[in-house]
């Protein structure tokens, strides 16, 4: 980064459709990561569950052992070093206790070193209108801290999927210095159709950050639909690139100066206050004014 204004750089998202077996998932990820690097991307992000998409928790626990998970991490570290890119693995399930996983994101530097780790903090425990039920907290242990990492072009706030619905996290990351927000995801098709694009654009607009959100998309072998629609959004809220539902890469050239311009135009990130909410009394009828 020369001088004051950080240089422009090319970012890429890798959209996947992962299944129940780790090796083919990593093959798909590696193929698309190489494609992105061949097209000049120097920051490449993969989605949540890059190594394994599985709802059968015992199987997930068995397969996501430190050994297999660490093989996956080692493979991604080697790839980042070989290609000389910043490789952001959206998440890999890591066994952190006999009966618990962490939904962990890895930011890997071009040296192959792990520059940052982040454990998803908000657990997706929901009952959707279409009957889908998720209880992420049954198998995953939530993280306890927000993480801000350094890229050559500015700071990157880390998050995963369901975290997206908690705006205070992103405001805190932006106020701590983030110019970029990572939201690798595996949004359900049901909620993706209803909320995904609106929420991702909102996080970009309200923080004046670029948002990089690589996703899982399509029908997965364990019988789950995810929404796809990976997104790269500018600090002004413009969608710079949007995927469909199939595995693919998205590419966008990023001008970090747009962060400063967006925040100068609308300084809402530095404004605002804490609120004390007064509960209004019950209306007592027309006599009262
Ligand atoms: O299941 C796994 O293997 C790992 N975890 C996930 O894929 C998680 C929990 S099921 N998915 C989400 O958080 C979707 C959030 C979402 O769709 C929303 O917020 O609307």
Automatic annotation (TrEMBL):
Domain CN hydrolase: residue ranges: 9-256
Keyword Hydrolase in annotation: yes
Sorted UniProt keywords: Hydrolase
InterPro entries: C-N_Hydrolase, C-N_Hydrolase_sf, Nit1/2_C-N_Hydrolase, UPF0012_CS
The keyword Hydrolase is annotated on this UniProt entry: yes
Gene3D superfamilies (alphabetical): Carbon-nitrogen hydrolase
MF annotations from Gene Ontology: hydrolase activity
Superkingdom of origin organism: Bacteria
PANTHER family xref list: DEAMINATED GLUTATHIONE AMIDASE, NITRILASE-RELATED
Entry similarity comment: Belongs to the carbon-nitrogen hydrolase superfamily. NIT1/NIT2 family.
Protein name: Carbon-nitrogen hydrolase family protein
Organism: Methyloligella solikamskensis
